[in-house]
Design goal:
1 helix; 29% helix; 70 residues; mainly alpha
């Protein structure tokens, strides 16, 4: 999370995914994002809530499903 130098605005960078060969605990990552955004918003403007980000997964049957910008 990024807050501009004047404290007027904030942005939340995101990306469209990643590939992992191992199963991850999505709830752990979702909770981490919520806690970090809650801290940022509280410091920013006293807001006592954060962003709830849902992480989803799907199985890739083969690598031809990937669309890479190389």
């Amino acid at each position: 999370f990024v807050i501009d130098k004047d404290g007027e605005d904030f942005i939340m960078p995101h990306h469209d995914g990643w590939i992992s060969r191992v199963k991850i605990d999505k709830t752990e990552y979702e909770d981490m994002l919520h806690k970090e955004s809650m801290k940022m918003l509280c410091d920013y403007d006293g807001i006592d809530d954060g962003f709830r980000v849902k992480i989803v997964s799907r199985k890739l049957d083969n690598l031809t499903q990937l669309k890479l910008n190389i």
